[in-house]
Amino acid sequence: MTANKNELRNSIAELAQMNVSLNKKGGPSRSKKLFQQILIQEQEILKYFELPNTPYNQGLLRFNSIPWDKEIDDIISILHKEKEVQINKNAVNDIDILIEAKKSNRDPMFILPQLGIETHVYTLFVYNNILMFGQDEPVNILNELKLANNYEILNITGRMHSTVDWLEKSEDTIKSLEQRGLKYIREYADEIKKQLNSWGKI
Fold first, then answer.
1. What confidence score (pLDDT) does residue 2 get?
2. Same domain, 100 and 183
3. What is the DSSP string of 120-170?
4. How far is 31 from 117, CA to CA, in rounded Å?
């Protein structure tokens, strides 16, 4: 993303136009391709400001109408302020963020992006089932989240959630991930098996 302010304005104006077009088409379900383009554009703008892709930050870039130039400049000012807030937040220890998140029962969709962690079925499981229920110390949970924040691991754990093929060699799959350092993969696998069993799929 360029640092040129005019190009930044144009990028936001283009994003607004796409939002308006999407609304006219009937929303994301009516035009998935356009919605994906919007998400990509949002991500590029937020990346420029070094902001996490949280629902709040996304909301700053959602439009129901075409904004005036002054409105676009106001949005840019807000994003700059949010960047400063984020810089200050980053000074807070990640473990403290998890401790506070558990105390205040914060939504993982806000917390995980702050930590640079993908919101994925496995990381959400760790957050909701291990952190929120106090099953382990925050330092161990943070290590797990960072370890799992890997394309290959997320791909494997994602397939475990969406298919039943892995069940033929479930123990091999679990052990291979344990060997890579995952501490809660067995609990995750057990949870999936319970769900499949309740649905009559196994």
1. 47
2. yes
3. -HHHHHIIIIIITTT-S-HHHHHHHHHHH-SHHHHHHHHHHHH-SGGGGGH
4. 28
Are 99 and 153 members of one domain? Answer: yes
Same domain, 136 and 187: yes
Q: How confident is the model at residue 85 (pLDDT cuts 50, 70, 90)?
A: confident
Report CA Rg, the chain: 20
Tell me the pLDDT tens digit for each residue of 91-134.
568 899 999 999 999 999 999 998 989 999 999 999 999 999 99
Q: Are 102 and 131 in contact (CB under 8 A)?
A: yes
Q: Are residues 176 and 138 in the same domain?
A: yes
- Residue 180 scores a pLDDT above 80: yes
Number of domains in the chain: 2
What is the mean predicted confidence (pLDDT) over 40-52?
91
User: Could you tell me if 86 and 120 lie in one domain?
Assistant: no
Parent domain of 193: 94-198
Q: How many helices (H) and strands (E) does the chain have?
A: 11, 0
Beta-carbon-side half-sphere exposure of residue 133 (alpha carbons within 13 Å):
7
Contact 190, 132 (CB under 8 A): no
150 and 125 together in one domain = yes
